[in-house]
Write a structure and sequence with these properties.
Largest sheet: 5 strands, antiparallel
Number of helices: 21
Number of strands: 17
Shape: globular
Bound molecules: flavin-adenine dinucleotide, FE2/S2 (inorganic) cluster
């Protein structure tokens, strides 16, 4: 055949000529009608597969939903996808043993085979239900047994695990240069040579700037493999975090120290854990770095107001190896994406100190939706209280907002007002008045929703006041119980949904829930 005819087709590849050896999660997705056009399907399969491969015990339903938060589907409405994957979730045995809180008729429990109230008394989903009173045909649950997923597991190629990284220097289209140094000194030398070079870790910011905003960066330096930038260490006075540490790894360490250290010391850590929960999706958190988020200096960065509030310090190194330390609150300069980094300097690490007794740190974020969305307004607050003649007085405070200015903004007048005041209802009322004048949003400010954003700045402080008061037993009593509900973190239970319809067989597939022909190809 003519080469010119073959050429356009050479990348088209389908698996229809191979025997399909599907993993049970793929089979499940196909059978529960979890793929329609199939565009999103490989992404859902890979997210779920990654979760199952990295979980030592079956994941919870919440974990499954969390791992899928970064995947979008425009066809299915998500219910069939969640139904397909829910079978792999850890479930409560109570449901099957009759001690569930569900009000079931005497002698009945939920049948593990059909998921309906039944008197068959089966113990395992593997057994076949012979119950007499199953008038329903199951229409939206998976017939796949989730416990079998380990049987066909692929392993990560050992050659890749054992491969020793080498320093790389590649050139690309239009004079693009891409470096992968392995030592800090090499990074600093490259930075001295190419002042405008972009450092890369997750590429979640630079990638978007180059592809979507057409930013003409010419020199890219991947710093993923530099040991000094990957330090992650809990010390006597706080946590040292290398600039290239991924957000997921930070989250893991924070959870560990919260379990191990005194509760009052880790209030900043808890605030970061909460904020990271709503920071992008798992895929982005696995790739994106702490330093990338800081140095991008986005005005709606979810973490920068918290670093500032939590008294974090940044270590900055120049091309000669000199290190200087700057408080996070002084690192972000007035102006869009401006930071205190001179030519040839890079961010080396971040230091997050433990909290002192009666020092409270809290995060806030309001977005259009909870999962994987950027903030409309966010904030990080801190207050340090000290007892003085039987009152709790503000010894120190800091309040930083994102989404209200071109940079993370300090509410300096409110801070000045708070210091020295007694932490009581009067403080709340008066602080709100000062705050209203401190954080000004012009009617034509970019982002719109001016009234809403103004009210968020106030309501965040209101919630913070209640939260701190709730932590302090002696103050808590003065707070109306109805107000305290504002303190609780949002908790969304796992999504449930069902679809019931009558199946009228008319001798054709019309009206019956048939798996469409492409489904088994789309899931692989
Ligand atoms: C889908 C999606 C969802 C997102 N959701 C959120 C969200 O909810 N909240 C939020 O705050 N952000 C969000 N982001 C933005 C995200 O935080 C940043 O993209 C990410 O943290 C940057 O990390 P990175 O390693 O990918 O940076 P890269 O893209 O690799 O680098 C970003 C910048 O940082 C500079 N840099 C990196 N390391 C250093 C260093 N050591 N010294 C000096 N400069 C350095 C680089 O030169 C570059 O300019 C989202 C992004 C995406 C794509
Ligand atoms: S986008 Fe079409 S099946 Fe999900």
């Amino acid at each position: 055949m003519d080469k010119n005819i073959i050429e356009p087709f050479k990348f088209i590849f389908t698996c229809q000529y191979f025997e399909l050896n599907l993993l049970s999660l793929q089979e499940s997705l196909a059978r529960t009608h979890g793929s329609q056009c199939g565009f999103c399907t490989p992404g859902f399969v890979m997210s779920m597969y990654a979760l199952l491969r990295s979980s030592q015990t079956p994941p919870s339903e919440e974990q499954i939903e969390e791992c899928l938060a970064g995947n979008l589907c425009r066809c299915t409405g998500y219910r069939p996808i969640l139904d397909a994957f829910r079978v792999f979730a850890k479930t409560s045995n109570d449901l099957y043993t009759g001690v569930s809180s569900l009000s079931l008729e005497e002698g009945k429990s939920v049948c593990p085979s059909t998921g309906k109230p039944c008197s068959c008394n089966l113990n395992s989903v593997n057994d076949k239900c012979m119950g007499s009173d199953n008038i329903y045909e199951p229409t939206s649950y998976s017939e796949i047994d989730g416990t079998k997923y380990t049987e066909k597991e692929l392993i990560f190629p050992p050659e890749l695990l054992l491969r020793i990284p080498t320093s790389l220097n590649l050139t690309g289209f239009g004079g693009l240069m891409w470096y992968r140094p392995l030592t800090l000194q090499h990074v600093l030398d490259l930075k001295a040579k190419y002042d405008n070079a972009k450092l890369l870790v997750g590429n979640t910011e630079v990638g978007i700037e180059m592809r979507l905003k057409r930013m003409p960066y010419r020199v890219l330096i991947s710093v993923m493999h530099v040991p000094e930038l990957n330090v992650l260490d809990a010390k006597d006075d706080g946590i040292e975090i290398g600039a290239a540490v991924r957000l997921s790894d930070l989250m893991t360490l924070l959870k560990k120290v919260v379990n191990e250290r005194a509760a009052h010391e880790t209030l900043s850590c808890k605030a970061f854990i909460e904020q990271l929960k709503w920071f992008a999706g798992t895929q982005i958190r696995n790739a994106a770095s702490v330093g990338g988020n800081i140095c991008t200096a986005s005005p709606i960065s979810d973490l920068n107001p918290l670093w500032m509030a939590a008294r974090a310090k940044f270590q900055i190194i120049d091309s000669k190896g000199h290190i200087r330390t700057v408080l996070a609150e002084n690192f972000f300069l007035p102006g869009y994406r401006k930071v205190d980094l001179a030519s040839g300097e890079i961010l080396l690490s971040i230091f997050l100190p433990w909290n002192r007794t009666f020092e409270f740190v809290k995060e806030f974020k309001q977005s259009h939706r909870r999962d994987d969305d950027i903030a409309i307004v966010n904030a990080g607050f801190r207050v340090h209280l000290q007892e003085h003649t039987e009152n709790w007085v503000v010894a120190d405070a800091s309040l930083f907002y994102g989404g209200v200015a071109p940079y993370s903004l300090a509410a300096t007048k409110t801070k000045e007002f708070l210091i020295g005041k007694i932490w009581d209802q009067d403080l709340l009322q008066n602080a709100l008045k000062v705050l209203q004048k401190d954080i000004l949003l012009k009617d034509n400010a970019p982002g719109g929703m001016i009234e809403f954003r103004k009210s968020l700045t106030l309501s965040f402080f209101f919630k913070f006041f209640l939260w701190v008061s709730q932590q302090m037993d002696s103050i808590k009593e003065g707070i109306p119980l109805s107000h305290l509900s504002a303190v609780h973190s949002v908790h969304r239970p796992p999504i449930t949904g069902s679809q019931d319809y009558e199946i009228l067989k008319r001798g054709t597939s019309v009206g019956s829930p048939e798996v469409h022909l492409s489904a088994r190809l789309q899931v692989c």
